[in-house]
Design a protein that fits this description.
The complex is a heterodimer of chains A (about 110) and B (about 110).
Chain A lengths: L3 E2 L4 E5 L4 E7 L4 E9 L5 E8 L4 E4 L2 E6 L4 E6 L8 E9 L5 E3 L3 E6 L1
Parallel strand pairs in A: 2-11
Antiparallel strand pairs in A: 1-3, 3-8, 4-5, 4-9, 6-7, 7-8, 9-10, 9-11
Chain B lengths: L4 E3 L2 E4 L5 E6 L6 E8 L3 E9 L2 E5 L6 E5 L5 E5 L8 E8 L7 E2 L3 E5 L1
Parallel strand pairs in B: 2-11
Antiparallel strand pairs in B: 1-3, 3-8, 4-5, 4-9, 5-6, 7-8, 9-10, 9-11
Chain lengths: ~110, ~110
């Protein structure tokens, strides 16, 4: 059974710091991995999608990497801003099941 | 381009009642998935539809059901509501299987 873990559960940093968010998964048989952002009481906003054959994806200040063999992904946020404050979730699309398996998320607070 | 639309945004129901939630996917998307989000369990997969066929179902009781119409719009139904069904219900759409998932704003269901 696929399990996705995000540690730590919460992080508070001053504005301007470069951040690394971690995600680990137990079963490497995935189609892709997606990073999402969720603001309080809202839906999920897709940030980056990495296919299983890819190692890295970039969008603006965000960079995500995937190491399928070790079951790890990282989301790098450069020069963090207060507007980056949200909960960040990673999810893997499990092979053969058409379902996303989510981590519990990491709540990020960027202080001005 | 319109995103995923979920209606209603908020619902308050009484135990024992039933409820129907609606999801309109992004135009052209054929895959629709439903997830339940609670503080304790996080995001859990309910079911996934592709071209009107349910392809996968999560570990939820039979009180939870869904369907997809020929225009890809989907509905989920919960019968005999319990207090524990209170949650944010999220719908996601994808162009095809194994592609990027886009989420709606969710329906907040409160059972009293």
């Amino acid at each position: 059974k696929q399990e996705v873990t995000q540690i730590p559960a919460a992080l508070s940093v001053p504005e301007g710091e470069n951040l690394v968010l971690n995600c680990s998964f137990t079963d490497s048989a995935i189609y892709n991995l997606q990073w999402f952002r969720q603001d309080p009481g809202k839906g999920l906003t897709s940030l980056l999608l990495i296919q299983s054959s890819q190692r890295e994806q970039t969008s603006g200040r965000l960079n995500a990497s995937l190491d399928k063999s070790s079951g790890r992904s990282t989301l790098y946020i450069a020069a963090s801003q207060p507007g980056d404050s949200a909960t960040y979730l990673c999810a893997v699309l499990q092979g053969g099941s058409e379902k996303l398996v989510f981590g519990k998320g990491m709540k990020l607070t960027v202080n001005p | 381009k319109a995103g995923v639309t979920q209606t209603p945004r908020y619902l308050i129901k009484t135990r024992g009642q039933q409820v129907t939630l609606s999801c309109s996917p992004i135009s052209g998307h054929r895959s629709v998935s439903w997830y339940q989000q609670t503080p304790g369990q996080g995001l859990q997969f309910l079911f996934e539809y592709f071209s009107e066929t349910q392809r996968n179902k999560g570990n939820f009781p039979g009180r939870f059901s869904g369907r997809q119409f020929s225009n890809s719009r989907s509905e989920m139904n919960v019968s005999t509501l319990e207090l524990g069904d209170s949650a944010l219900y999220l719908c996601a759409s994808s162009l095809l299987e194994n592609t990027e998932a886009f989420f709606g704003q969710g329906t907040r269901l409160t059972v009293v």
